[in-house]
Amino acid sequence: MDRARWIAVITALLAVTVALSALLHPFDDSRGKRAAAAPTVSPANVRRYYLDHLDQYRLPASRTIRRILVPQRATAARLYSSIRRGSSFAALARRFSRDPASRALGGRLVVTRSTEPPLGLLALSLSRGATSHPFRTMYGYSIIRPTSPIRPPRVVPLAHVRSMIQHLLLRQDREKRGGGR
Fold this sequence. Notes:
- By secondary structure, the chain is an alpha+beta fold.
- It is built from six helices and six strands, in the order ααββααβαβββα.
- A four-stranded antiparallel β-sheet has the order 3-2-5-4. A two-stranded antiparallel sheet has the order 1-6.
- Helix 2 crosses helix 6 (158-176).
- The longest helix is centred in the first third of the chain and has 22 residues, at 3-24.
């Protein structure tokens, strides 16, 4: 084995030894003090926080739609006619829509009742697969087509937000003790 390879192997072994030593003997500084155990949050505290703040985890009724948003009424009318003649809604949305959130997705968008009026209300009232006539919104003229059934209101399960709540409670505890971040 040549000298350069020998040095590379020794360097790699040294790095592995240092990494294993750090895992087996955790120290928080060069003075040799053992690192304190990481603070934890009890499952009961996480559950209590979740139940106390349940409204934060409620999701309203929603539905997936396709949307084409254009600035002029005449453009919306022309696109509506094209859709009625059988053109692909998704292809027209990709080509003409000015909605930055959904254009690249063929107009795909999830809406709730509180989504930009009157878009949200109309999206929840149309039958699945029906195409709306062009209508005015604060951003221009829209044409929509619901593509999914209405998803009923629901609560996000604790299992899906547990780690987020743990991090929040740990941060609050650190701030309370003056530890900041």
